[in-house]
Amino acid sequence: MKQSSFFAKTRKETPKDAVMASHKLMLRGDFIDQLAAGIYTLLPLGLRAHQRILSIIRQELNAIGAQELTMPALHPKAVWEKTGRWEAYKGEMFQFEDKSGHWFGLGPTHEEVVTVIAGARISSFRDLPVALYQIQTKFRDEARPKAGLLRGKEFIMKDLYSFHATREDFDRFYEEVTRAYLKIFKRCGLEAFPVQASGGEFTKDVTREFMVKSEAGEDITLICDHCAWAANKEIAETSKKNCPECGEKVKEYKTVEAGHIFHLGTRFSEKLGAYFLDENGKRHPVIMGCYGLGTTRIMATIVEVNHDKDGIVWPGEVAPFDVHILALGSGNAVRQEAQALESHLQGEGIGVLYDDREVTAGQKFADADLIGIPLRVVVSEKTMAQGMVEVKHRAEEEAKLVTRGEMFNIATNHRNRTRNHETGDSKN
Length: 428
Fold this sequence. Notes:
Layout: H1 21-28, E1 32-36, E2 39-42, H2 44-63, E3 67-68, E4 74-76, H3 77-81, H4 85-88, E5 95-97, E6 103-106, H5 111-119, E7 130-139, E8 154-164, H6 167-187, E9 192-197, E10 207-213, E11 219-223, E12 230-232, E13 251-265, H7 267-272, E14 275-277, E15 283-285, E16 287-294, H8 295-305, E17 307-308, E18 311-312, E19 323-327, H9 332-347, E20 352-355, H10 361-371, E21 375-379, H11 381-385, E22 389-393, E23 400-402, H12 404-419
Parallel strand pairs: 3-7, 19-20, 19-21
Antiparallel strand pairs: 1-2, 4-6, 5-6, 7-8, 8-16, 9-10, 10-13, 11-12, 11-13, 13-16, 14-15, 17-18, 21-22, 22-23
Helix pairs in contact: 1-8, 2-6, 2-8
C-alpha cells in the first residue's frame, strides 16, 4: 500500500482534550477520528489493527467450541422488562419511543436477547452445553466519556454467553474461557492478571476481571508478586496488606480492566423461559455465564503499554502492517528499488506500507515512529550504493545495513512468528 494514496494524515500537535497516551497517539497517527466525546471512527490504520485483534479473538474462542452470531443492537422494551432491567438500566441505556409508540433501547449488553434465542432452541440436556458470541457495537450513556477508546459512549465489544446443564460444566467452561482470554491478551502483547472482583449489577457471585498494569487505569489492583494472587482493592480482604494465599506483602497497581467474566446462574433463564429436560424428564432452568472483552478498549490498552516518546510500538500480531518501507530521495532508481521490495514482500503475504510521499526524510522517520509498524526498511541512494537496505525494529534503538536477501529473511521470520497461531499453533 502506497502511503501517498493511503487515507491517513498524521499531525504533529497533540489535541488539547487528549490526556491519555493512547488517545493522543491514535489521534496524531490518524488511527481514529473523534466525532464527539466518547464517539469515534476507526480510520483505515485503526481498523486494520482492530481487525487483527478480532482475528486473534475469533481463533481462540472458536478453539474452545464457541460459535459466532450477530444479534440486533435495537432491543424492544418488553424483553428487558421481563428481567426487571429496563428501569435498572435507565441511567446507562439509550431508550426512546419510535413512531408507532413502541419503546426500544440500544443494547449495552445482550443477556436478555441471547437467552431468548437460546431458550427457543434448547429443550433437552442433549442440547447443552452451548457457547455463543458476537462482536458488535455497544451503546452506553457514559457520564464521563474520556481517555479516547478507553471509555466511550459507543464502542466495540466481544460478548460471549454460555449455557449449561450443571454448575460443574459451567465451572469447567469458565476456566476454559479464562485460559483462552490469557492467550488472547498474550498474543496482543499484554500481560493480564486474573483478578477477583465484584459482580456489580450482574451477579452476587465474585467474578473475574482481567487487569493490565497501566497508569491509564482507573482501578486499583492488589497483586502478590510472589504467588501471582490478585484482587480488586474494592473487595480484597487484606487489612494488613498481606497476601491471603502465601502471606507475602502485596503491592498496589493502577490497572485497566481488559475483560470481565461472570457466573449468571439461572437469573435470566428463569425469567425468560430458557429450560431443559434432564435424563429423567425433569425440567430445569439453564445455567448461564457471560464473558466480555471490549475490543476497541483492548486496542487502546495495547497502545498505553506499548509506546515511547516518539509514538506507538505495535506488537507484531496486532500491527496494522508488518513492514514500513521508506524511500529517501526522489531518484527513479530509489523508487524502483522500493517498489520491487514492496512487491516481493506482498507476494510473500507480508503487509507493507510504502512511504512514497514527496516529503522530507525527517517527516518520514517521525511518521514511521509515530505509526509504530514493527519493521522499518529504508531505501536510499546511499544504501543502494552499498548494495544494502537499512533495517530497524521499532522496539529497538539501532538500525543496521543488510542485503536484500537478509531483509527478506528478517521480514519472513517476523511474519512467521506473528502468524503461527493462525495455523492452529496457540498452545503457548
